[in-house]
Amino acid sequence: MEKSIQEDIREIAHKTGERLREAKADKAQYTVTETQTHEFNVDGGEFSLFRTLFGHSLSITAYKDRKKGSASTNQFDDSAIEAAVRDCLKSAESGVADEAYDIAPAQESETFREGAYEPDIDLFFERTRELMQDIRERHPKILMEQMIVSHDQTHKIYRNTNGTEFEAFQGAYAVSLMFSHEGDAATSFFGSDIYTDRLDRPFIELGSLEKDLADTEAQLSTVPVEGKFQGVILLTPGSLPDFLGNIIGNFASDGCILDRTSIWLDKLGQSVADSRITLSLCPGDRRIVCGERFTRDGFRETLLTFSSHTGTHMDAPAHLFQDGRTLDQMPMSQFSGRATVLDVSQEGPVITEEFLRSNYEAIHCADYILFYTGWEDRWGTERFLEDAFPVPDEDAARYLVSRGLKGVGTDALSVDRLSGPPAVHTILMKADAVILESLCLEKVRGRKDFLFFALPMKFQDTDGAPVRAFAELREAFEGERRRR
Predict the structure, then answer these.
(1) How is the chain split into domains, by residue range?
(2) How far apart are CA 80 and CA 78, in angstroms?
(3) Which of 50, 58, 71, 441 has the fewest CB atoms found within 10 Å of its own CB?
(4) Helical H runs in 270-393?
(5) Which pLDDT value is given to residue 217?
């Protein structure tokens, strides 16, 4: 009976949604989760227990009259679901209304698969046996008090009343050890943990396990700190996450902000730590096992990792010059204006001043000159990297500067030869002009005097950034206005 219930969490999600509609919740979101854990223990150096554990849960958050309520249950029968919905709405009735309460808008349904959902129990067992042997050989003074190893499998479905559904399948291996120093001088118990979704390396090479074992062997005598003192604290890498976690939890978490107990309440927009300390949320980082793909409020999360000169991007003067302006130091007006696209696809490898002067009527009123080289047709192939696209020579670059342009762009990789010095970059950037590279210009090829926008992502002190570049074509705008 238990297994059949677990296998159909989609039906549980459906029933929960029905009960919420019947209870007339304004909005709601709910997550149904099933787990399966294969676990075995090692006590005193010997395998002592193997078992499989099943678990399931339902968590609901509902909103009624701008009030929020929550409830959860680990029972999946109809009466338990009805009771959870009823308790959730009662919780909302006793809450405080808040206009900010809401759920994520409708998003495309998606299924996420992370880690090792199906375990390789035989190899997992062998890796555990190998770890025990490695500890005996490399750290003979270590007394292994207990080791608990498991494969944790999670299947969950998130839904909200806006129509979003996310389904996630995750699996990973966990190893938790407790050990001490064996011999005349004893140490306190020490613990170390490993969490991985791969079994291609010995466990002793993962995480900080090897160092933790060595530190325990060296920790033969400790001296307690007496009294209070002020001074410099030296934190080992292993203690830093807990230290920072406690600081954030006590000073910057939702609870302490809402309770107004944080000492940083009046520090919004101000620095509260040394600039050398950086924290970032990277849910999709490859080093994070089974990272988060959607939030508890139903918003998808995607990790983006790129350089400041990735894809269609903008170069700032700071790209070349130490005292050059960064993009965040430039006014927003720098990133839009009247533009002209010159078709240079048949001009050969060099764009000359003579060619530009012959297009004076197209250039003289422009804020941006954009070169269509045809190279964008090669995007996604090795031919895009060929260093044969048309580029301005230095005289042409000086002529462009004389026109007082805000920027120059190209659909190729660069406005300079890849194999030579950045001469054109230097001339343009000394005049405080920005440079756009890897644009898509086919649809505006040969167009003159249209509104152009190139909006860079905003980062502090950046020498460049990806941009969203787009044009407003006057006749298209007029046609849309007539249709309205």
Answers:
(1) 2-218, 313-481
(2) 5
(3) 50
(4) 353-358, 360-363
(5) 80
Q: How many CB atoms lie within 10 A of CB 82?
A: 15
Exposure string of 406-431, with b = 16+ CB inside 10 Å and e = fewer, is bbbbbbbbbbbbeeeebbbbbbbbeb
State the sign of the Cα–Cα–Cα–Cα dihedral 440, 444, 449, 452.
negative
Beta 336-343 vs 368-372: how paired, if at all?
Answer: parallel
Task: Average the pLDDT over 446-453 and give the result.
Answer: 92
pLDDT category of residue 427 using cuts at 50, 70 and 90: very high
Query: Of 351, 309, 297, 326, which Cα lies nearest the Cα of 438?
Result: 309
Cα–Cα distance for residue pair 350/342, rounded to 1 Å: 13
Question: Mean pLDDT, the chain, as a whole number?
Answer: 88
Q: How far apart are CA 130 and CA 128, in angstroms?
A: 5
- Whether 2-218 shares its CATH topology with 313-481 is answered no
Position 418: which residue type? L
Range scoring the smallest mean pLDDT among 1-5, 222-226, 475-479: 1-5
CA–CA separation, 242 vs 252, rounded Å? 15
Asked if residues 180 and 124 have their Cβ atoms less than 8 Å apart, the reply is: no
**Residue range 226-265, pLDDT digits in tens:** 888 888 877 777 778 888 888 888 998 888 888 889 999 8
Query: How far is the CA of 384 from the CAs of 377, 379, 418, 438, 466, in angstroms?
Result: 8, 5, 12, 10, 18
Residue 384 carries which DSSP code? G
User: Which CATH architecture fits 313-481?
Assistant: 3-Layer(bba) Sandwich (3.50)
- Token pair for 401: 């500067």
Give the class (CATH, top level) of 2-218.
Answer: alpha beta
Angle, CA 219 vertex, CA 214 and CA 224 arms, to 5°: 145
Pairing of strands 407-410, 368-372: parallel
Q: Which pLDDT tens digit goes with each residue over 392-407? A: 999 999 999 999 999 9
The Cα 481–Cα 356 span in angstroms is: 35
**Helix count (H) and strand count (E) of the chain?**
12, 16
DSSP 140: T
The two three-digit tokens of residue 448, written as one number? 């003159």
Told to judge if 319 belongs to the known catalytic residues of this protein, a careful annotator would answer yes
